[in-house]
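Thread title: Can someone regenerate the structure for this chain?

I was given the following input by a collaborator and told the matching structure tokens would be attached. They weren't. Posting the sequence so someone can regenerate them.
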Amino acid sequence: EVQLVESGGDLVQPGGSLRLSCAASEFRISTELMSWIRQAPGKGLEWVSSIDSRGRGTYLPSVKGRFTISRDNDKNMLYLDMNSLKPEDTAVYYCTRESSWASRGQGTQVTVSS
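Best answer:
Regenerated them for you:
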């Protein structure tokens, strides 16, 4: 059974930084288009970023230049480095295979507030 476990969420002040991590099991992330998605309070799921098998990242325009997606194939881990955080980045963040958002992990809470 595919498992994805996110961690690293926290309460941070505007302008702060966080690194989210995602541990994958039962499949190799290096062979998949992997994504981070988020869900803000009272809103639907929103795509944030993806990384392809060649390591190329794509980003939601509102996070481009502030967020960086990466992965460690040896550790089978996915990461999201978030800088210059804004209150509107507040959400539960999930890692997922882009082909199946339904198989996302439990999520990790990111709250940006002063």
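The beta strands are 3-7, 11-12, 18-25, 34-39, 45-51, 57-59, 67-72, 77-82, 91-97, 108-112.
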